Amino acid sequence: MNPPPRRIAHLDMDAFYASVELLRYPDLRGQPVVIGGRRDQQPVQLADGTRQYSRLRDYVGRGVITTATYEARALGVGSAMGVMKAAQLAPDAVLLPVDFDAYRHYSRLFKAAVAEIAPEIEDRGIDEIYIDLSHIDEASLPLAQRIKRAVHEATGLSCSIGITPNKLLSKICSDLEKPDGITILGLEDVPLRIWPLPVRKINGIGPKATEKLTVLGIHTIGDLAQADAATLQEHFGRSYATWLGEVCRGIDERPVVTSSEPKSISRETTFERDLHARHDRAKLSEIFTALCTRLAEDLQRRAYVSRTIGIKLRYEDFRSVTRDLTLPSPTADAATIRRAAGECLRRVSLEKKLRLIGVRASALTAAAEAAAANESLQGELPL
Ligand code: TTP
Ligand code: MG
Ligand code: MG
After folding, report:
1. Strand ranges inside 234-373, DSSP E
2. Selected residue with higher pLDDT from 363 and 181
3. Which residues line ligand 1 (CB under 6 A)?
4. How many domains is the chain partitioned into structurally?
5. Mean pLDDT throughout 268-289?
6. Helices 238-247 and 229-236 meet at what angle, rounded to 10?
7. Which of 77, 144, 171, 222 has a Cα at 20 to 30 A from 271?
8. Residues paired with 359 in a beta bridge
């Protein structure tokens, strides 16, 4: 069996710190706002219930802007700019102090919301993640829309998503239609969509390399694709030149590295029409077995074994029940999971019709670890 073609998303929150601030100061929506003040720039609540905000023009100090709303960016203000310099461009813009605790809170919320839909996540910092969508059976556009909706429901915030065959292109794409954008590209779109972009859009071509490329007359990614390999090698050395030659063609094989260990992996399905355990027995059984098989495949692909198998049922009246069963030894085997889930099913009422059925594997350990533990156990057995 061939693995499915890679489908990688990059998701980046829009004007992240500023957007979190607007959640608590919604009266600032639509205005130029920059984040980067000190505590004494905290808004003041007035007796009449309105708030008084600090303005850039009143700022004195050496502070730097972390980010700005898109309205402020339209005035030329942005990340990493000195606050006093920004004050010259946008004197009336509102200045707010940073609140990292709040940003970390919303960072956790949006990542958890995405993980509910697509658990193979590589954390790339406070406001961005890569997501491996290769094993999700849904077209890219509705999937991206569903992820954006989940993020918005969990946080009230918008984000932008790029979906392509690899991390390199997805990182570029999540930025192309910001804010609130979705950009989906295949390798065949690289000449049309990627080549016109400046070389610095490639993650890994920094200011220094950009400057050297400019001197060589290479401004766009397309210029880079046309460039003479020997010349590049002469100026950048072999390995960086080889890398430049690949990235300008949209080639990038880096895997999505999921660092955080999942607590559980589950598969569930909502039926097109409610099903009854007795009358629709054959159909239900088929769906149930398929879920167990897919769960086993999820475990195997991610190299986990599970000790606790559980089920979730949602009845036609939206009431849900769960049951689980702990096994004598961890497994990633479809038939074992199916048997355990079947045991759980015997312990719930099947009188009412069902809307949804799900299977969950928890108490996970890395398969290699479990095998090693098993071996050392056997080693200790008296023969
Ligand atoms: P970014 O994702 O680069 O920017 P952003 O989310 O503010 O805006 P965009 O819509 O273009 O993605 O960075 C995420 C957060 O990291 C940003 O809200 C503030 C912080 N940050 C800094 O503190 N300093 C910086 O120089 C940058 C670039 C970001
Ligand atoms: Mg962002
Ligand atoms: Mg970011």
Report:
1. 264-275, 304-315, 320-331, 354-366
2. 181
3. 12-17, 66-67, 79-80, 126-127, 178-179
4. 4
5. 94
6. 130
7. 144
8. 267, 311
168, 254, 342 from 5: Cα distances, Å: 16, 14, 33
Greatest C-alpha distance within the chain: 84
What pLDDT, in 10s, does the model give residues 4-44?
899 999 999 999 999 999 999 999 999 999 999 888 899 99
Whether residue 179 has a cis bond before it, omega within 30° of 0: yes
Q: Would the annotation count 127 as a binding residue?
A: yes
Quick check: is 252 in a domain?
Answer: no
> Is 383 a domain residue?
no
Query: Domain end: 172, 189, 206, which one?
Result: 189
**Residue 139 falls within a domain, yes or no?**
yes
Residues 365, 271, single domain; the answer is yes
Determine the distance separating the centroid of ligand 2 and the alpha carbon of 114, expressed in angstroms.
16
280 assigned binding-site residue:
no
Residue among 71, 120, 128, 211 flagged as catalytic:
128
Q: Taking the alpha carbons of 231, 233, 237, 241 in that order, is the dihedral positive or negative?
A: positive
CATH of the domain at 229: 1.10.150.20
Global pTM value: 0.71
Based on the fold, state whether residues 344 and 287 are members of the same structural domain: yes
Position 150 in a domain? yes
Asked if 120 contacts 102 with a C-beta cutoff of 8 angstroms, the reply is no
**Is the domain of 234 the same as that of 333?**
no
Residues 106 and 95 in one domain: no
Instruction: Provide the pLDDT for residue 381.
Output: 47
Picking from 75, 109, 114, the residue whose alpha carbon sits closest to that of residue 92 is 75
Question: Would you say residue 247 has pLDDT above 90?
Answer: yes
Which residues are CB-neighbours of 281 under 8 A, at least 6 positions away?
Answer: none
Domain that holds residue 312: 264-372
113, 295, 306 from 264: Cα distances, Å: 15, 11, 8
Same domain, 209 and 141: no
Q: Are strands 354-366 and 128-132 parallel, antiparallel or unpaired?
A: unpaired
